[in-house]
Amino acid sequence: MITYIIGNLFESPAHVLINTVNTGRVMGKGIAKDFKTIYPEMFREYLRWHSQNQTSKKSETNSKILPLTPSKGGECPLLAGMQRVDSY
């Protein structure tokens, strides 16, 4: 069942937030930029993971569960699932 909610994704009571990104390793626009700003350690971990999981098959997709730690400190029980795709 899908429940539609209007509001701020980052104030959601969800246990998991999903941020899909392409292989550009930038996160410079849209919701990806917000994830990068709010959770900078997640972005650094994504870069480490991406560099270790390069593939010659551009169509291959990988996912990674990364812990989220807010940039302003505090507890955060959420995880980010990041899917790697060639482009949008």
Characteristics:
single chain; 88 residues; alpha+beta; 3-stranded mixed sheet; 2 helices; 3 strands; globular
In round numbers, the mean pLDDT is 71
Measured distance between first and last alpha carbons: 26 Å
Low-confidence stretches: none
The succession of helices and strands, N to C, reads EHHEE
* Rg from Cα: 13 Å
The profile of the biggest β sheet is: 3 strands, mixed
Counting DSSP H or I runs of 4 or more residues, the number of helices is: 2
For the largest beta sheet, what order do the strands appear in spatially? 1-3-2
Number of strands: 3
Strand portion: 15-25%
Helical percent range? 25-40%
For the record, the count of structural domains works out to 1
Structural class: alpha+beta
Shape: globular
How would you describe this protein?
With 88 residues, this protein is of the alpha+beta class. It contains 2 helices and 3 strands; from the N terminus they run E-H-H-E-E. It has one domain (19-85). The chain is globular and about 35 Å long. Helices cover 25% and strands 23% of the residues. The mean pLDDT is 71. The chain has a 3-stranded mixed β-sheet.
